[in-house]
Write a structure and sequence with these properties.
It is a single chain. The protein is 68% helix and 5% strand. The protein is mainly α and 205 residues long. The protein has a domain at 49-175. The chain has a two-stranded antiparallel sheet.
Length: 205
């Protein structure tokens, strides 16, 4: 009588096969990570990048402009006169209105590339006439009192942040949820309708 051979109770894995499996697992993990990154940074999300930039810059300009308007442009004109800015009263009105309405335009994404240029020039002017003499940091601690720390005038750090944001909007556009993107879609639809009409008529006008 023949008895069945004893079956192997444990399957041994060769080292080279184990390494191959480990390598395949690492590759799978890496490919999944790349796919995840592409999902976050892909084209479908690129148009949302300018939205938070528009929000903080637009609101920031509007708040500063409204503060000047609340105190009266004449008070701001006195500061410009102290800084030897020519035509202080006229410039005070221009800067105040520019910050209010320019900030609103940036916030809603209307003509952002155009509006950002005078806002950028205004920031450059403020940086070189006022902020640059106080150094880089936006928070300058000049002393400590029993009530707490004392802070001096801010440096040009905030100016640079505004300038960088405006440059990004000029180069990258207003992005999603903006008047500019709505106007762009309307132009594309009109262009598509015109091309379709020309195609149907054989290019005759």
């Amino acid at each position: 009588m023949e008895f069945p051979k004893k079956m192997k109770t444990q399957q041994h894995v060769r080292p080279d096969r184990w390494l191959a499996r480990a390598r395949d697992g690492i590759r799978t993990t890496l490919f999944r990570t790349e796919s995840h990154d592409e999902g976050l940074n892909g084209d479908r999300w690129q148009r949302w990048v300018p939205v938070p930039i528009r929000m903080i810059i637009g609101v920031g300009f509007m708040v500063h402009g409204w503060a000047k308007w609340s105190r009266g442009p004449a008070a701001f004109a006195e500061l410009l006169k102290y800084l030897d800015v020519p035509l202080p009263v006229a410039n005070a009105w221009v800067v105040t209105l520019l910050e209010i309405f320019g900030g609103l335009a940036v916030l809603i994404g209307a003509f952002v590339a155009i509006v950002s240029i005078p806002l950028l020039l205004s920031m450059l002017s403020a940086m070189f006439t006022v902020s640059i003499k106080y150094g880089f940091s936006a928070v300058n601690t000049i002393g400590l009192t029993p009530e707490g720390p004392r802070f001096g005038p801010p440096g040009y750090e905030i100016n640079l942040l505004y300038i960088a944001g405006l440059v990004a909007l000029i180069l990258g556009g207003a992005g999603a949820l903006s008047i500019d993107s709505l106007r762009k879609r309307q132009r594309q639809r009109r262009s598509a309708a015109t091309n379709q009409a020309l195609h149907l008529t054989g290019g005759r006008t």
